[in-house]
Amino acid sequence: MENGSAGVVRGSRPAIKENKVTVVLGAQWGDEGKGKVVDMLATEADLVCRCQGGNNAGHTVVVDHQEYDFHLLPSGIINPKCKSVIGNGVVVHLPGLFDELEKNETKGLVGWQDRLLISDRAHLVFDFHQEVDGLQELEKGKLSLGTTKKGIGPAYSSKASRNGIRIADLLGDFLTFQEKFTTLVKSYQKMFPNLIVNIEEELNHYKLYAERIRPLVVETVSYIHSALRAGKTILVEGANAAMLDIDFGTYPYVTSSNCSIGGVCTGLGLPPSTIGEVVGVVKAYTTRVGDGPFPTELTNEIGGLLQIRGGEIGVTTRRKRRCGWLDIPLLKYTSMVNGYTVLCITKLDILDVFEELKLCIGYKKDGETLPYFPSSVAELGSVEVEYATMPGWETSITGIRNFSNLPTNAKSYVEKIQDLVGVPGMHFFMGDFLLRISYLHISSHTLFFILFTIFS
């Protein structure tokens, strides 16, 4: 199977808004295929930026039959013509970053040294942050959150506690860095007496990391604004997804950053007035990794079939993703928060084999339809799901290049989503996913993409 190698796009002929930032965000619980969308749009961009998260994210991109896995790197790093920016809102684990670069170099990634830029304001994730992440999960026992144990939460905690260490600190006076590092380690050892850190050894490592990373570090806020003033096209790649946002997601089963539209502003130093199109990426069904409520989850053979056909294995965690039917109230809620101007449906063809499909169209509590998306995981976990049942198309849509040639039931499924989520009427254009990269843009008004994989 070659994910993302074919597609049908429903929408008007696009064009990135001049001097406006285009943003790609996950509309569900992550793993929607944002990396593929970013990689397509990056061919038209001068800058591709990450604004939040760390190497807890996972994007897989296939180019010329070669699969690349990205965790901290922006997916646009593949494009030799654009710069990739890791913004101030990202937390950076330097050993993981260099390991990721080396692994992708063996797969054919070249010239990244001239394209990768890292904010001097970005905070560092240390190995002891990762150890603390695991210790905190152990302490919670049955109440554990199922984190990736990449140290992201503890690093953001250090940042919020104002004892975090930024890349600028690493590149400044090393004695000051050494003092800050030692103080931070000792503060965690007070909380976790069994935490063992070889401070001298770690400091020696970071002396080397400082010199390796120095050529890549810039003050990204001024850099990005200068690019905007120069008329450059800028694309922002959101990590994780709206339902993992620390404020708007299924708290506490969330990540430790704002992966909704607000994180773009704070994570890159961009005012809202600079944002143009906001692309919400959503699978034709729903998945999530880790614990937490999931109203449409299928724990039966249908969920298992979705998992197998969709290749639903986490890029970062290698855990099987939980699968369920598409959740319209969830999409309406994340659209409310993020203000999508574009919806992008991925993996439509995974549904090829089903005799009938279901769409969650509402949540009920005590027999009454809820007029809001529940804030509490207890309430969300207890809702009664209202479904609309639709007939499947039970035939392969692989190779179809025109929306009008899709099976009637496949078109009806897409149009139903359009009606329920509230996307206005649209036109069509289509083409092979990889060939289509060269002319796919983002339009100046709302449109609707359909991207799907080849399954064989």
TrEMBL record:
Q: Name one GO biological process term.
A: 'de novo' AMP biosynthetic process
Q: Which SMART domains match?
A: Adenylsucc_synt (SM00788)
- Give the cofactor note text: Binds 1 Mg(2+) ion per subunit.
Q: Which Pfam families match?
A: Adenylsucc_synt (PF00709)
Name the keywords, alphabetized.
Cytoplasm, GTP-binding, Ligase, Magnesium, Membrane, Metal-binding, Nucleotide-binding, Purine biosynthesis, Transmembrane, Transmembrane helix
Could you tell me which pathway this protein works in? Purine metabolism; AMP biosynthesis via de novo pathway; AMP from IMP: step 1/2
Q: Which CDD domains match?
A: AdSS
Q: Where in the cell is it found?
A: Cytoplasm
Q: Where does substrate bind?
A: V315, T316, T317, R318, R319, K320, R321
Q: Which residues bind IMP?
A: D31, E32, G33, K34, N56, A57, G58, H59, T148, R162, N240, T255, R319
Kindly give the InterPro entries that the UniProt entry links to this protein: Adenylosuccin_syn_GTP-bd, Adenylosuccin_syn_Lys_AS, Adenylosuccinate_synth_dom1, Adenylosuccinate_synth_dom2, Adenylosuccinate_synth_dom3, Adenylosuccinate_synthetase, P-loop_NTPase
Which cofactor does the UniProt annotation name? Mg(2+)
Q: Quaternary state and partners of this protein?
A: Homodimer.
In which family does this protein belong, per the annotation? Belongs to the adenylosuccinate synthetase family.
State what protein this is by name.
Answer: Adenylosuccinate synthetase
Specify the species. Answer: Ranatra chinensis
